[in-house]
Specification:
Chain lengths: 159, 145
């Protein structure tokens, strides 16, 4: 029912229409880069393409989160679970929060968008997300910048 | 993919950085994007350090002005010798969401170092402005616009 949707929509809002936190990071699609949203999502969330400081921050998260009763994130936490209308959806429900990330490629406007939607659960969610809220857009932008470079390098050379 | 349109991206099509902050439209709050834009960029919504910085940088000029309103979106624009800034504030009553799309185009003269604080400020400040306006406008009904 895409035609009935409002102008701005993301799969990320399907399960969490009234989020506690939501943002979108936008970047220019590099010339010649793939427009497959699943490839963008997989590259964006692959440890190989992540800036090192984010890998370190994630390692710290894995160490510290259990101290407030939050389980360590499983390895497949960033797995693409659905691709629809040019957008790849990642979804994970945890004890402290539910999150959805929609990675969309808008070829017509030459833009890539990463929509993050979060529903917090109780005091653990609020405590955990207080610092994450500040860093999140910067982290996504750093990942997006790195992914742009990786996928631009893989783009076929212009003839 | 549902095409996404924003005045901020219309005016700066290849931004150096672009973000959208999204928040739930409080029940009974106004759905007028201009009212949201005025509230978001009012002095009371800005952190104190930013009010001081804007007074210094934009002496004798309004820090933020609504340049135009188009449909459900109000556009705030700043053209400066260092950067161009656009913020498009839209209210979507159907999904009960308020969105601010911000785009920035840097204009040379700024080395890599000064860009980092601008970028941090852009994302952190916009989200805090949105939370303050959510609280403030949640008490304002459509009749009180």
């Amino acid at each position: 029912m895409t035609a009935d949707r409002p102008e701005f929509w993301s799969l990320a809002f399907t399960d969490i229409p009234q989020p506690d936190y939501a943002d979108m990071s936008i970047a220019v699609l590099p010339a010649g880069a793939t427009v497959d949203p699943a490839v963008w999502a997989q590259t964006l969330f692959s440890f190989e393409a992540m800036p090192k400081w984010i890998v370190v921050a994630m390692g710290l998260r894995q160490l510290l989160a259990p101290l407030i009763g939050i389980p360590r994130a499983p390895k497949d936490v960033f797995q693409v679970c659905r691709v629809e209308n040019g957008e790849a959806l990642l979804s994970f429900d945890d004890r402290h929060l539910d999150f959805r990330a929609g990675v969309g490629v808008d070829e017509a406007r030459a833009l890539v968008r990463v929509v993050t939607v979060v529903r917090l659960k109780g005091w653990r969610g609020r405590l955990y997300f207080a610092p994450v809220r500040i860093a999140h857009p910067l982290v996504v932008h750093a990942m997006l910048d790195r992914t742009r470079r990786v996928l631009a390098a893989k783009a076929p050379a212009a003839s | 993919m549902t095409s996404f349109h924003s005045l901020a991206l219309d005016e700066i099509r290849d931004p150096d950085f672009a973000d959208m902050a999204i928040a739930v439209l409080p029940a009974h709050a106004t759905a007028d994007p201009a009212a949201w834009a005025r509230s978001l960029f009012a002095a009371y919504s800005l952190p104190r350090w930013m009010r001081v910085a804007l007074r210094l940088v934009r002496v004798g000029r309004e820090p933020f002005e609504i340049r135009r309103v188009d449909g459900d979106e109000a556009l705030v624009a700043i053209d400066d010798c260092r950067l161009d800034f656009r913020a498009a504030v839209s209210v979507d009553e159907a999904t009960a969401l308020v969105r601010i799309v911000t785009t920035v185009r840097l204009k040379g003269g700024l080395g890599r170092l000064p860009v980092a604080p601008i970028r941090i400020a852009q994302v952190a400040v916009i989200h805090s402005m949105l939370r303050r306006s959510q609280r403030r406008l949640s008490a304002v009904t459509g009749e009180n616009r």
